[in-house]
Amino acid sequence: DKGNHRHFMEKEIYEQPEVISHALSNYVDFHSHTVKPVDAAIDFKNLRGLAISACGTAYLAGLVGKYWFERYARLPVEIDVASEFRYREMPLSKDQAALFISQSGETADTLACLRYCHDEGLKIGAIVNVKESTIAREADAVFPILAGPEIGVASTKAFTCQLAVLASLAIAAGKARGTISPDEERQLVKSLAEMPRIMSLVLNAIQPQVETLARDLSKYKDVLYLGRGTSYPLAMEGALKLKEISYIHAEGYAAGELKHGPIALIDENMPVIVIAPHDRFFDKTVSNMQEVAARGGRIIFITDEKGAAASKLETMATIVLPNVAEIIAPMVFSLPIQLLAYHTAVFMGTDVDQPRNLAKSVTVE
Ligand code: M6R
User: Fold this and answer.
1) Cys-Cys with 225: which of 194, 236, 252, 254 at CB 3.0–4.6 Å?
2) Cβ distance 123 to 41 under 8 Å?
3) Cα angle at 153 between 152 and 155, to 5 degrees?
4) For the chain, how big is the Rg over CA atoms in Å?
5) Would residue 241 show up in a list of annotated catalytic residues for this protein?
């Protein structure tokens, strides 16, 4: 049932504040602002490394997770798409654990990768939406994302719930390894707890602007997304979402890679969507944005209040989100990205929930 929404995708975008809160409540205590203990099968305290693997959007959630595990838990993360991971003949050891992320829990490559790591003697964690799935059944520890059924082929609420679970696990790992203090733990969990409220605010605030912008975006054939730090995987997620439902060619790049190739493409025919909260990387990203502007590129700037105040560049549009704690920025900044792809596809008249050539669950390799 789509409720008052035109598509499941739209419904699922708007469900995020509620399902994120549900997901978080499984991993954090909202009263004491601490993380709940993690399934003992994954011994974060004594791990030497973590291998993460997944496909598509779930892989991009894993990439954000890598930044968090490394930063908050000082835990080295090896990550790859499942279809490559399996064949890389990567040296693995039993003091590493493997983490697989899958909405459906049935993705063939992810499952094959899980079995490979299991045979290598690694403990297996699975971040899944479907608890009865094969991937969940074969894991030593299951971390449900509790997003509820996701019907739209383009993953939205599963992505942000995967992020919420990864953030919680990274904090729990940091706590177990003594790399974050009790005070930092409280601050981080407090920030996570604010997310549902902020997400609702943002969804309501940006909708009209994003819809207007989508009308413009639907006229282009190519779009480039740029971001740094955790906004880099988000740039790739933005590009993936746009291409899969609107069929517009889009690429996501690390902002710093711009001058190593893609800058050659910049002209007025390829809008550049820059995702840049006012974080440690902001000034660097803005200087990449200047390089785009200097070559006549049109910029859609997705930033926060501080970022908007700090940049004087002329843009095609600037979407201003509230200033939020760094740990929740990837979830909050997912919202304009999802809505922009959604409304662009709606303007183009594509089959948003069932885009051509795609299946919700890819059970063949
Ligand atoms: O069910 P899974 O999370 O394992 O699916 C992985 C990908 O097939 C999936 O995320 C795909 O990329 C989505 N259509 C993206 O919106």
Assistant:
1) 252
2) yes
3) 80
4) 20
5) no
Is the pLDDT score of 361 beyond 90?
A: no
Give me the half-sphere count of Cα atoms (radius 13 Å) on the Cβ side of residue 54.
26
- pTM of the prediction? 0.97
* Dihedral, CA of residue 180, residue 181, residue 186 and residue 188, to nearest 10: -20
Amino acid in the structure at residue 100: F
The pLDDT tens digits for 110-134 are: 999 999 999 999 999 999 999 999 9
CA–CA separation, 297 and 263 (whole Å) = 10
87 C-beta neighbours (distance < 10 Å), count: 11
Q: Which amino acid is at 345?
A: A
Q: Tell me the CA distances in angstroms from 265 to 222, 251, 289, 291, 296, one per residue in order.
A: 10, 12, 14, 12, 11
**How far is the centre of ligand 1, averaged over its atoms, from the C-alpha of 57 (Å)?**
5
3-state secondary structure of 185: helix
- Ligand 1 atom with the smallest distance to the CA of 55 is 6
End-to-end CA distance of the chain: 31
Site of tokens 């074969």: 138
Reduce the DSSP state of residue 34 to 3 states and report it. strand
- ipTM comes to 0.99
Buried b (16+ CB within 10 A) or exposed e, 222-248: ebbbbbbbbbbbbbbbbbbbbbbbbbb
Q: What residues line ligand 1, using a CB cutoff of 6 Å?
A: 55-58, 102-104, 107, 110, 153-155, 240, 244, 361-362
Rounded to whole angstroms, what are the CA distances from 272 to 102, 224, 300, 304, 330? 30, 5, 6, 17, 19
Q: What is the pLDDT of residue 86?
A: 87
pLDDT digit string (tens) for 196-233? Answer: 999 999 999 999 999 999 999 999 999 999 999 999 99
φ/ψ of 299, rounded to 5, equals -115, 135
Q: Which of 57, 85, 129, 354, when mutated, tests ligand 1's pocket best, judged by the most ligand atoms within 8 Å of its CB?
A: 57
How do residues 83-115 score in pLDDT, each as one tens digit?
Answer: 999 888 888 999 999 999 999 999 999 999 999
Structure tokens at 170: 């990274």
pLDDT band at 21 (very low <50, low <70, confident <90, very high): very high
- What's the CA-to-centroid distance between 48 and ligand 1, angstroms? 29
